[in-house]
């Protein structure tokens, strides 16, 4: 019974119950008598590594060395030394024997020999990776020897492990002990273990290096790093010291330093600190790149910008696995915490494109989503320029809740370039947005952009609406599309915008019923058949033919008894995505094209301005475009379809995007009549000054004129045609004049024409009784003084 209880408390041979990790399969190789296992955490399933060492006696020398290694690994911390997580020791009983097992839990690592086989690097890439790994181990050995006054005693291929980011780390501290080079009398309690050396079978035998003192002198001065270099390049385990003289496999650039590390005189051996700083072998592209990333916070903005602009091309020359597992995490962390410059985003996305889809979503997308909240305009531009590289990998929920709220700020940005990039990004993001976001937010912004001051932005807004029409619901399409394309796009002063409106109508023809085609679409397109721009004319003729064909097909079906709507008669909706128009910031217009563009829009004055930043031509429409008017009878018989109440800018504008401009009427439901013959120059100037459409009544002018007319004037019946003249009519003259004399009450006679020029009544000097006591009282002197002050003042 007692044996059973001891077995339960001590655990079994397969592991211990109180260890919060699940131990998996072992690796084929490990250092000394240790066994290296794969393992995972019971709490969250994160990967770890477990090292176990067993002995049959509590006083076994192996166990004493193992306990020393656990103590040293727990207390010594360095970026290039294996990270310690947990340790425990258990006892198991099997009959009369006791088995003691030591467990060490560390970060997930893999033996270096296994990782080298897995990577399979050759040539220059192998040498670069070896240089980076040796550089890390040399820093760890230098830290132990120079800073901690410790001697590792057995740096070899088996005592080096590799992390998931391909970093090399030093472990196997079983024989680690204190020793000061300047004081040979300082011998630690475990120094005698230096006289034993584990061979390949895991057993312990006498070292071939001599007695304890000889071993002490041998290992104290960096001979062990030379042994690691030999085993790494030769691929064989070191058995005898004479094998160190075989240098045929050592790299030529490392050979001089290797020979100095193995000098017969300990005092002349090369210190690892000098090896790190001065060795030519460590000066290569991979070491320099990783080193720059690790000290990125110490670099200035110019160095960062230069480095990250070269990084995309440099990454193609480095080992692919090292770039993905080492450089990519460093780059993502630098961007996330703001230490990297905006050009680093290009390198991040290029490296991420080499990953499988699952790894890209796990390693790159979280960083990209966080970058959308950045206030750095250069970061935002980079995200929008490369959105086609990662947009498809974003989930609909992430786009709707985390990405779009930050992207939408670009719609109202002061930079036209950023507004245009934001607009184009919607082609990728709009399919992932909810109907609530599209109707309540996106369409409001697009309504504003269709009257943007940049003509290219207005054109691309029309193109975007045609491309995302399939993602709108039926009610929104009925309310938005025709108004956006006919009222605004077809009447734009920029000819490419008019052409985009015609193309958008054709691409969305299946969404319109026969009444809309006959009464709202065809009348507006026919006008463009005489457009000054030949390209717009050709597109208009094609559109007229297409829509007339739809009407004919509907008529044929009606005659045959099929009364189905026009939907499905036209070309399939969004059969092909409309191409973007030219960018307002990157398109260069030739002088000949500029002249033709000016003649095409001669009805509206255009101003050509040259951008100092990009030195390209930007054509802007005036802030108040001329209104195209025609007689009221043109649209009098056209039935207006009832549109549901909306707040998106095409319906009744209730809540605008901003609080300002609440009275601006820029919704897509406000139809404007076509153009009448051009009015006289005087009338046109007055209309432009008033900034109001021709057909809108001038309410304020009418009220002002009515208030100035005599009350007894007969009421005149007003017609719509009189409004054009009321706006420029002169007001009636004022009849009230100031009288020449002061009239007293009761003396005014309206019939006396001479009364206005009669001599004034004689003035009297008699003062009122209340002004003083007695008769003939003179005015007080104070009054005279007061008058004098008034005059001099």
Automatic annotation (TrEMBL):
The keyword Oxidoreductase does not apply. SUPFAM superfamilies: ARM repeat, Protein kinase-like (PK-like). Residues 632-653, 724-793 are annotated as: Disordered. Residues 1-282 form the Protein kinase domain. It comes from the Eukaryota. One of its GO terms (molecular function) is ATP binding. Keywords: Kinase, Transferase. This is N-terminal kinase-like protein. It comes from Morella rubra. The lineage of its organism: Eukaryota, Viridiplantae, Streptophyta, Embryophyta, Tracheophyta.
């Amino acid at each position: 019974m007692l044996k059973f209880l001891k077995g339960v408390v001590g655990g079994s041979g397969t592991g211990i119950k109180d260890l919060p990790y699940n131990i998996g399969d072992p690796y084929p190789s490990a250092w000394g008598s240790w066994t290296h296992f794969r393992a995972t955490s019971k709490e969250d399933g994160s990967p770890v590594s477990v090292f176990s060492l067993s002995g049959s006696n509590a006083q076994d020398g192996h166990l004493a060395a193992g306990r020393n290694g656990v103590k040293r690994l727990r207390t010594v911390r360095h970026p290039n030394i294996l990270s310690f997580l947990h340790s425990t020791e258990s006892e198991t009983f099997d009959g009369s024997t006791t088995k003691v097992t030591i467990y060490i839990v560390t970060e997930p690592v893999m033996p270096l020999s296994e990782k080298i086989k897995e990577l399979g690097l050759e040539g220059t890439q192998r040498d670069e990776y070896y240089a980076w790994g040796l550089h890390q181990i040399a820093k760890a050995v230098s830290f132990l020897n120079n800073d901690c006054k410790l001697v590792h005693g057995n740096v070899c291929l088996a005592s080096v492990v590799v992390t998931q980011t391909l970093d090399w780390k030093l472990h196997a501290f079983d024989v680690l002990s204190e020793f000061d080079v300047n004081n040979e009398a300082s011998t630690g309690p475990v120094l005698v273990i230096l006289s034993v050396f584990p061979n390949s079978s895991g057993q312990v035998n006498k070292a071939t290096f001599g007695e304890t003192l000889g071993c002490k002198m041998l290992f104290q001065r960096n001979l062990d790093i030379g042994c690691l270099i030999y085993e790494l390049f030769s691929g064989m385990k070191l058995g005898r010291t004479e094998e160190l003289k075989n240098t045929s496999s050592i790299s030529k650039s490392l050979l001089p330093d290797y020979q100095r590390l193995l000098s017969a005189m300990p005092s002349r051996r090369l210190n690892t600190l000098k090896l790190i700083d001065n060795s030519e072998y460590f000066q290569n592209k991979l070491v320099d790149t990783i080193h720059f990333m690790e000290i990125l916070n110490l670099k200035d903005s110019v160095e960062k910008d230069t480095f990250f602009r070269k990084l995309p091309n440099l990454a193609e020359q480095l080992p692919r696995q090292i770039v993905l597992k080492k450089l990519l995490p460093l780059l993502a962390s630098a961007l996330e915490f703001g230490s990297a410059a905006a050009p680093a985003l290009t390198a991040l996305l290029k490296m991420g494109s080499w990953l499988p889809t699952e790894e890209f979503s796990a390693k790159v997308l979280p960083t990209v989503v966080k970058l959308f909240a950045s206030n750095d305009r250069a970061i935002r531009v980079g995200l929008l320029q490369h959105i086609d590289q990662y947009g498809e990998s974003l989930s609909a929920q992430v786009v709707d809740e985390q990405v779009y709220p930050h992207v939408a700020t670009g719609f109202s940005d002061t930079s036209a370039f950023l507004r245009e990039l934001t607009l184009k990004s919607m082609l990728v993001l709009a399919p992932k947005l909810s109907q609530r976001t599209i109707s309540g937010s996106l369409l409001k912004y697009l309504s504003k952009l269709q009257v943007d001051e940049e003509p290219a932005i207005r054109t691309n807004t029309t193109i975007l609406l045609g491309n995302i029409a399939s993602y709108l619901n039926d009610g929104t399409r009925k309310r938005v599309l025709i108004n956006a394309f006919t009222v605004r796009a077809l009447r734009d002063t920029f000819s490419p915008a008019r052409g985009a409106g015609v193309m958008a109508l054709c691409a969305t023809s299946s969404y319109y019923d026969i009444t809309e085609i006959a009464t709202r679409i065809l009348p507006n397109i026919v006008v463009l058949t005489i457009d000054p721009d030949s390209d717009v004319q050709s597109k208009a003729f094609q559109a007229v033919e297409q829509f007339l064909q739809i009407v004919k097909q509907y008529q044929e079906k009606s005659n045959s008894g099929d009364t189905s709507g026009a939907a499905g008669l036209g070309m399939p909706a969004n059969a092909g995505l409309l191409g973007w128009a030219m960018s307002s910031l990157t398109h260069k217009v030739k002088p000949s094209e500029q002249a033709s563009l000016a003649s095409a829009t001669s009805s509206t004055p255009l101003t050509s301005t040259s951008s100092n930043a990009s030195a390209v031509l930007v054509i802007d429409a005036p802030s108040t475009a001329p209104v195209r008017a025609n007689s009221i009878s043109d649209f009098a018989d056209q039935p207006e379809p009832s549109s549901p109440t909306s707040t998106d800018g095409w319906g009744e504008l209730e809540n605008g995007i901003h609080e300002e401009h609440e009275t601006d009427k820029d919704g897509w439901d406000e139809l404007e009549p076509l153009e009448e013959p051009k009015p006289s120059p005087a009338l046109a100037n007055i209309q432009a000054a008033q900034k109001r459409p021709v057909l809108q009544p001038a309410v304020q002018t009418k009220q002002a004129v009515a208030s100035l007319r005599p009350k007894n004037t007969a009421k005149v019946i007003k017609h719509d045609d009189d409004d054009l003249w009321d706006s420029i009519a002169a007001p009636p003259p004022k009849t009230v004049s100031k009288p020449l004399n002061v009239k007293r009450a009761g003396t005014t006679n309206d019939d006396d024409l001479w009364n206005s020029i009669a001599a004034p009544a004689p003035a009297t000097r008699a003062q009122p009784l209340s002004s003083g006591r007695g008769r003939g009282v003179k005015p007080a002197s104070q009054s005279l003084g007061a008058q004098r002050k008034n005059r001099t003042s």
